Amino acid sequence: MSSTAGQLTTLQLLRKQLSLPKLLFHLLFWGAHWATFAYGWWKQVSDPRLAPLNTTLSWSIWISRGADLVLSWDTTLILLPACRTIVRFIRPKIKWLPLDENVWFHRQVAYALLLFTIVHTAGHYVNFYTIERTQVRPLKAIDIHYKEPGGITGHIMLLCMLLMYTTTHVRIRRQSFETFCSTMSSSFVRAKPQTLALPDGRILFFGVFGAGRDTQPGAENHPVVFYFPGIPSTHDEAHMMHNAALERGLQVVALDRPGYAGSTPQPGRQFLDWPSDVQAIADRFSITLFAIIGVSGGGPYALACLRSLPKDRLTGVALCGSVYPVSFGLAGMKFLNQLLLRTAPWVPSLLAWIVDYTQSSVARDEEHPEVYVNKMMELMKSIPAADRVIFYDNIGGYRDAIVASSREALKPGGQTFAQEYALLGSDWGYKIEEIQDADRLVIWHGTEDIHVPIAMAEKASQLLPNAELRRLEGDGHVGPILRGAEILDVIKGRLERSTQ
Length: 500
Description:
Elements: H1 10-17, H2 20-46, H3 51-57, H4 59-77, H5 84-90, H6 102-134, H7 141-146, H8 149-166, H9 170-175, H10 177-184, E1 194-197, E2 203-210, E3 224-228, H11 242-247, E4 251-255, H12 274-284, E5 290-295, H13 299-308, E6 314-320, H14 335-343, H15 348-363, H16 369-380, H17 385-392, H18 398-410, H19 415-425, E7 441-446, H20 454-463, E8 468-472, H21 484-498
Parallel strand pairs: 3-4, 3-5, 5-6, 6-7, 7-8
Antiparallel strand pairs: 1-2, 2-4
InterPro entries: AB_hydrolase_1 (IPR000073), AB_hydrolase_fold (IPR029058), Fe3_Rdtase_TM_dom (IPR013130)
Pfam families: Abhydrolase_1, Ferric_reduct
Protein name: AB hydrolase-1 domain-containing protein
């Protein structure tokens, strides 16, 4: 048994289906279905008003009515995955059921629809034949099928049921994947990629969100906030900040670091090379004052700017779940992250090859985009529930943004991913305690973060006593970035004070 990227072997699929949560689900799901079917059957049989019909049609009307009641229930149930508020409410209360797997749940309902549609349709075909044979009504079965309102509407409903089932088939989902995603996530619109030629000839890609979206940075004198995405990611990640920035009249300019998306790779680069790129784009568009948001792996670049750029231009820095030097200690960090930080500096080429083979090859597969999403879904199963719910429920547009941005970041290959982890795991070229004017810094960090444990943020706060640390109780790694309104309020206040 072999598997391709993003697919499971037969044995793995079998183990998933025989897990305790899945077995409990099937017991309750199918038990409820057959109980509903039995109730519909009993209701038809026991109703004295229907005695003549029961006498004439007997078992065929009983099974058709039982199946009809089940189908009425299933056509409502199939919409449950779209009811995010309800699912978000019940998921923490019923953790032993696989309610996170909405695609799988949708497929189980589709199987039930297929089964009971067959039962319901078969029962009615027998009913129509019996009516013709007994001449309860002077009609032929074919007339009942295609000339009577009941038969016509019944066939329309049959078509609807079959469409509900067939659209869960993997080939249909693949063909309509982009349409389905854009319909279910209509608020996500990719920013227009823009470019800047840097002094050394490299090209820097970026996108503009918030006020003056897709215009050039600094247009109409909107205050500018530079956004540094995580790893691996591109400017599309900043979509999560768009609405909050728009409401506050702020322009968020998200920058693609060298090697990501269309930005020219920069072999041998260091964290302290980045501030000059930021200053170049600020100078090019005559942005005299700006602030910075650094998210996750973008945090060290934000700190490098805080160390290198003058206070009269960089008015404030916000860190959201930022990474910190490995010297701060990795206790409590997810094992995979520890492994990447420890090994990347020594074998970056091997890591680049592994990422290209397992991730980039899937990201480049334009014919089967759902495979990359499924891979992301699998990865999310190993993170804390607080983060997993945000991804599955697409809270704040997080799933849309992170899928689009990470896919674009990985398409060129795994070289930049490996380069960035090698930088994170090595000496940074500067020390946190060297940073002056740390009163410009505010740190948002979740207490349940296993990608970057809160202890690392607390260590940074101790080394920078003038900085502010905001502990987010119960939040994981993703939670801080969803506080866009709070973060931008702080940043806007600092930008306004600097202009007074």
